[in-house]
Amino acid sequence: MIQLTKVFHFETAHAIHGYEGQCKNIHGHSYELHVTIAGNEPGDEYLPAPGFLFDFKDIKKAGLEIVDALDHKIVLSKYYLKQHEELEHHENLVVWDFEPTAENILLFARNIFRKNLPENIRPVKLKLFETKDSYAEWQEG
Q1: What would the pLDDT profile of 69-79 be if each residue is shown by its tens digit?
Q2: Which of 63, 6, 36, 59 is nearest to 125 (CA)?
Q3: What is the C-alpha radius of gyration for the chain, rounded to an integer number of angstroms?
Q4: What are the CA-CA distances from residue 76 to residues 13, 55, 80, 117 (Å)?
Q5: Structure pTM?
Q6: How many structural domains does the chain have?
Q7: Cβ pair 127, 110 in contact under 8 A
């Protein structure tokens, strides 16, 4: 199986409702998202012209919705916002029905790629680095 990986970067602030650690406060991360896609290959043959399984620029295009939705935004759950109403008119606020944890941001990205990629191409692995040492990972299967 041939797999292609594209890396995306975005800066996002968030806070986690119902958590008692430091992450209950608004704070930010420089996220790095690795998206690996796969598709049908011709078996033992080479790929026909132009020789791409899928063009990297098209992977980038499929992922721009994620970057546009999250880059330089504050992502909060509706539950967090209910307890911090003073934030509801913030210019760059994004409100989700679920907590903006690394795991949920990863699933959000997976769903967007599933929607934006053609039927014969699918995301098979996503890895979201919240810090250089910590990441959440999703893998098909």
Answers
A1: 999 999 999 99
A2: 36
A3: 17
A4: 9, 34, 6, 27
A5: 0.93
A6: 1
A7: no
- Mind listing the pLDDT tens digit for each residue in 40-94? 877 778 888 999 999 999 999 999 999 999 999 999 999 999 999 998 898 999 9
Closest listed residue to residue 31, CA positions, set 61, 9, 3: 9
Burial of 35-64, coded b for 16+ CB within 10 Å and e otherwise, reads bbbbbeeeeeeeeeeeeebbeeebbeebbe
- Number of neighbours of residue 9 by Cβ within 10 angstroms: 11
96: exposed, middle or buried (Cβ count in 10 Å: 0-12, 13-18, 19+): middle
Q: What is the span of the domain harbouring residue 44? A: 3-139
Query: Which residue has tokens 């911090």?
Result: 84
Q: Is 18 left (phi over 0), alpha (psi -120 to 50) or beta?
A: left
How far apart (Å, rounded) are the C-alpha atoms in residues 141 and 134?
A: 22
8 Å CB contact between 87 and 93: yes
